[in-house]
Every structure is written in C-alpha cells, then in structure tokens.
Amino acid sequence: MQAEDMIYLEHSNTLEFDQARLPDAQILRGDVQFRHDSMWMYCDSAYFYDQQNSLDAFGHVRIVQGDTLSGYGDKLFYNGNTKVARFRKNVRLIHRNTTLYTDSLNYDRAKDVAYYLWRGKIVDSLNTLTSVRGYYYPSTEQALFRNEVLLTNENLILDSDTLNYNTGTNVADIVGPTTILYDEETTILSSLGTYNTANDQSKLYNRSVIKHSDHKMMTGDSLFYDQQAGLGIGWHNVIASDTTNSITLYGNYCEMYEEPEHGFATDSALIVDWSDSLDYTYMHADTLFTATVDSAKHIRARHNVRIYKTDMQAVCDSMWYNGKDSIAHLYEDPVCWNDSNQASADTIHVIIKNGEVDYLHGVGSAIMIQQVTDSFFNQMSGKQAYAYVREGEVKEVEVKGNALTVYYPREDNGKFIGVNTTESSTIYMYLIDQQVDHVLFTTETNGTIYPLDQVPEGADRLGGFFWATQERPRVPGDVFLKPERTARP
Predict the structure, then answer these.
(1) What is the largest CA-CA distance in the chain?
(2) pLDDT (tens digit, 9 = 90+) per residue, 208-246?
(3) Which end of the chain is more exposed for a tag (fewer CB within 10 A), N or C?
(4) Which band of pLDDT confidence, cut at 50, 70 and 90, is reported for residue 80?
(5) Distance CA 464, CA 473 (A)
C-alpha cells in the first residue's frame, strides 16, 4: 500500500488495546484526529484498524475535505481502501451553501457522490428538498432525488417522484410526472423540462400544462413560462383556454401575458367561443389577439378572417370584437351569411345579445341578397342596412340612403308574379320562413314590376350585386380554407 493511501492517526489523548474484545483495533479516546490524503477526521473516540486501513469513529464526528466540504454525525465508519465514509445518526453534509440532512449517509469519495437511501433533506440558499432517496455530487453540485420528492421555498411547492436539481444554479430538471404550485395561484403539470427556481423561468415539453387560479390554462408541445414577468409562450399544437369567458385559443405559436391580460396566436390560429354550449363560434385568421379590459374580453383578428357559427358565417380581412358592448366589427370586404341570405358592406357591425346574433349593421355600399332559386335573388342596397335575426333566422331587413331593391313577389300559391325594382330613401322587408312576406317603402318611391318574360337585361341585378357562396364556411373546419375572394363590382 502506498503512503498516500494510508490512514494516519494524527492525535489522541489516550491509546489502548483490548486483545480479547477488539484484537485488531487501537482504542482511541479524547480529541481524536485522523488524516487520509486531503481529508481530516475528528471525533471523541474511535476504533482504528490500521491493518485494514479503516476506522470506526464515535461522538461529535466531523470530516473536513478541502475548504468546501465538511460532514457531521454521531458515528462514522470509514474504509480508506474504498474511500467510502458511512455516517449514521444526526448526519449533516455541508458543501458551500448546501447542507444535506439525514440519519444515514454514505459518501463515496472515489466516485464523488453522497447518498441516502431512507429519508433525507437538502437545503441550499433558495430551496429545501426532501425525498426518500437522494444522491449528491459535490464536484458538479448536482443532486438526484427519487420517491416522494418535495421542493419548497417561500413561493413554490414542487411535488415529484424523480427530480434532478443543481444547488449551484438552483435549476430543477423535471424528468418524471411533476406538479409545481406557485403562490397558490399558478400550477404547472409536466413530465419533462426545467424550472429555474432563481428566476422562476421554466422550459416545458411533452404537452405540459400551465393553470391559473383565475381559470386560465395553457398547454402545448413546448412551453416557456416566466412566472415573474407573467409571460407564457407555446409552440406547436398550443391550446390556451379561459373558462371564465368560455373561450379557447389555438395555434402553433402563442404568447399570453398576465398583466395587463392579453395574448395572441398565429400559424393555424383558431379561437372558439363556447359560451353557448349548443352552438360554438369558430374563428380563424392569420393572427388572433385577445385581451381583457375591465373584465370584458376583446378579440382582434388580422388577415384572412373566417368565422363559422350555425346561425351566421362571415369572412373579412380584419375584425375587432368588443366584449363590453358585445359588438363584432368586420372590416375590409366583409361578407356575412345566414341561411340563404348574404350581407356585405364596407364595414359590418354584428350586434350580439345573450350569446346570439341580434342584428347586423352594414355601413357603406351595403347590399343584402337572398337566394330564392338558382337564378332568382332578392336584393336590397343602400348607404346603410340592418338585418334583424330572431331564433337564428333573418326576420326583417331595413335599408337607408338611396335604397334600391330587386325582389320577386309571389302569389298566395307561391307562384312568382315578376320582378319588382324599386328606389326609395328607406325600404323595409319582412320575412317569414325565409320568404318575403311584405315590403314597405317611404312615401317618395319609384318602382316597376316586370313580368318574368319581360325583364330588361340587367334589371334583375343591382349594381353592387355579387354572390360569394364559394367563400362561405359551411362547417367549422372550413374556417381554415382559403378560397379566392369574389371580385366586387
């Protein structure tokens, strides 16, 4: 055995031998000190087996290795050949700013690992970690915890079955099902990722979930969450839901901010309003923005906006929904449909009441069209138009300002009379079961009825007529289609 491998007795107040009871041991008492290469050991008493190069130490046991690591316990069993120190009872291992507590600890100096196999605790400058089993590597400051792992600090509770943690960086590596509760307000559910307890930033994978106490939740293939900044970012198949407002936002890239509360989604962005449990509203756009102002939800949609709801479908290039007054504003070539009816204008305002469309208000170049047959269309145009919806059907249409109409009146038996073309300042059309029941005009009205076989060319179409049925979303999935926009006259 080389000299540097041997344990040396440096000091003891007394030295005894008991050949009958401990034939191979030196019995040492009082201020006992040993040295083994760079490590010093201190205790009240010890059995020193110099031939086996090992010792048993008792009472106020302490080891010191370099200037960064020290260990304490009631008992120590140390083998100089394997360099394994086994501490028992009231054990503490201190390494820089980290202290490990347990009742049974083995420290393998050769492999640079300290481990406990039944209940232990590690405390560093920020966190306290407990587990059934634990491993700590002083040279890398890395720790591995298994079974009933609990990480806590003044803001955070992390519960897991397996956790890697670095006491130098204060970063926890999530490698198994883990629950993190922050300030009793935010819960993170993840099986893979990292959580930096120093700055409360996390990178999460495998469809992790972030839930807030105000009933908002975010999940995705990959998530970044900055608790202090109140920022969540998601990549690929992201879902951000708000059960308070009954809204869910989807996209392949999503950012959500907690204060002030706003966010956006892009790349296959979709927002679903499920406040009406029997009739969801689906809206897609290149980019969707949400915000909460004075407890009201606001939504903005930019470029290629497409909306589907059972009682109304719409397309436009931009949209703003004001949750405070429940009005959706559609801009840039908006078109809306209800059953066999089409409405268009420079701008359309959709007024919503109790979760259902109450009426549409078209402003500028407004034209309302109803398909009667494959080739017959009732039409009304003017500077402004209103379409009132009841129980999912258009019941009344009002057009103001240079109001023009083309419609096909019928006999009581349903047979068409001809084509009625009228000009007035204001026109009211009333419908029953999607058919024109009667039409009212203001006093200054010019009109003509043409028999069906005597309609002049072009008289059956208003100047602003266009029929954009190929753009219309027919089912929820159609909001992702991108049909060519119909040219307007």
Answers:
(1) 134
(2) 999 999 899 999 999 999 999 999 999 999 999 999 888
(3) N
(4) very high
(5) 22
> In this structure, are residues 288 and 307 in contact, taking their beta carbons and an 8 Å threshold?
no
Residue 234 pairs in a beta bridge with: 223, 254
**Residue 305 confidence (pLDDT) above 90:** yes
Cα–Cα distance for residue pair 197/128, rounded to 1 Å: 11
- Give the integer Cα–Cα distance in Å for 252 and 241: 15
Closest Cα partner for 397 from 356, 448, 439, 457? 439
- Specify the amino acid at residue 277: S
Q: Could you tell me where the beta strands, DSSP code E, fall in 167-280? A: 171-174, 178-182, 186-190, 193-196, 201-212, 216-226, 231-242, 247-258, 261-266, 270-273
Residues ≥6 apart with Cβ < 8 Å to 234: 218, 219, 220, 221, 222, 223, 224, 240, 251, 253, 254, 255, 256
pLDDT of residue 142: 96
Q: What is the DSSP secondary-structure string of 104-129?
A: EEEEETTTTEEEESS-EEEE-SS-EE
CB of 34 within 8 A of CB of 64?
no
Q: What is the pLDDT of residues 285-298, one digit of tens each?
A: 999 999 988 888 89
Q: 169-197 in b/e burial notation, b at 16+ Cβ within 10 A?
A: ebbbebbeebebbbeeebbbbbbbbbbbb
Contact 244/290 with Cβ under 8 angstroms?
Answer: no
- Rounded to whole angstroms, the Cα distance separating 379 from 344 reads 11
Two tokens at 416? 């068409």
The closest alpha carbon to 256, from 281, 280, 234, belongs to: 234
More confident residue, 292 or 43: 43
Confirm if 145 and 133 have CB atoms less than 8 A apart: yes
Hey, what long-range contacts does 209-213 have (CB within 8 A, 24 or more apart)? Answer: 210/186, 211/186, 211/187, 212/185, 212/186, 212/187, 212/258, 213/184, 213/185, 213/186
Which residues are paired to 151 by β-bridges? 129, 158
Confidence category of residue 443, pLDDT binned at 50, 70, 90: low
Between the alpha carbon of residue 288 and those of residues 235, 313, 320, 420, the distances in Å are 15, 18, 10, 43
Report which residue type is found at 19. Answer: Q
Which two tokens mark 452? Answer: 């069906």
